[in-house]
Amino acid sequence: MSRFHHMLSKSSRPVITATIVRCGVGRSISRQNTREFRYDKFYAIRDGNSGELNLGEAIVEATSTHPIPVDVHYSFARAPHFQQTLEDAINDQINIEYNVSYIYHSMYAFFSRDNVALDGFAQHFKKESLEERSHAELLMDYQTKRGGKVSLQAIMPPQLEFEHAQKGCGLYALELALSLEKLNYDKLLELHKIADECGDAAACDFIEGELLKDQIDSVKENAEMVASLTRMGADGPHGGLATWHFDKMLKK
Ligand SMILES: [Fe+2]
Ligand SMILES: [Fe+2]
Q1: Which of 7-16, 84-93, 98-107, 160-169 has the least mean pLDDT?
Q2: Vertex 10 angle, CA 5 and 12, to 5°
Q3: Which amino acid positions bind Fe cation, per UniProt (predicted)?
Q4: d(CA 163, CA 243)
Q5: Which residues are annotated as a binding site for Fe cation?
């Protein structure tokens, strides 16, 4: 007979109720024979005389802090410390990522025009557009994981023309992209600040690890492209040729 069973007479053995199993604490049953385990902390014990059910202190704490929602529209996974402010901020960031994606998609359409014919730029901005959309999806997945509700908002109609008399369309679009990437970084920092103010360490970790680092890389990559095309003289008298060469480089 196990040590655990020695400790309890047959009559005083705890009654395991459905409540315990639903709370997920039932897993602790497998630990009942270990030396450290305090059975009375997790078990509901029915009083032999009164028949009343006395819940273990851990069960009381778990079910009062995290009651199982009765409303099916409410997330089962959501913890009370995942605040509405952070949920709203994540939805705002999803919208920003979609807006940036939409602008890059518009650039893709512009550079694909037969009278522009810069396929390297077109493919570059198509890739960038998909990347921003993947960021939106990453945030949607995280929102869902935490028990928040994804609330998609309207997307602004994007700019359609990217010609620029002095700089040419290539340099102008890349400079615009650089500004957008920097703005996106600012917005991610704001989101991180909100997560921090909500005391949500997990959200801070997600934003730092999955988004902020990549955003820094994107700003650097865009800055280097602007620097290269400027050095090639895109904003000078032979700007058209510089843009055409850069387009060929983007295709490689
Ligand atoms: Fe992004
Ligand atoms: Fe980006």
Answers
A1: 7-16
A2: 95
A3: 97, 132, 135, 181, 215
A4: 12
A5: 97, 132, 135, 181, 215
In order of 30, 44, 46, 93, 216, the CA distances from 57 in angstroms are 18, 9, 14, 41, 48
In this prediction the pTM is 0.77
171 CA to middle of ligand 1, Å? 21
Q: Flag whether pLDDT at 76 surpasses 70.
A: yes
Distance 67 CA to ligand 2 centre (A): 40
Residues of the chain with CATH 1.20.1260.10: 84-251
198 Cα to the center of ligand 2, angstroms:
26
Q: What is the pLDDT of residues 89-127, one digit of tens each?
A: 999 999 999 999 999 999 999 999 999 999 999 999 999
Tell me the CA–centroid distance for residue 225 and ligand 1, in Å: 18
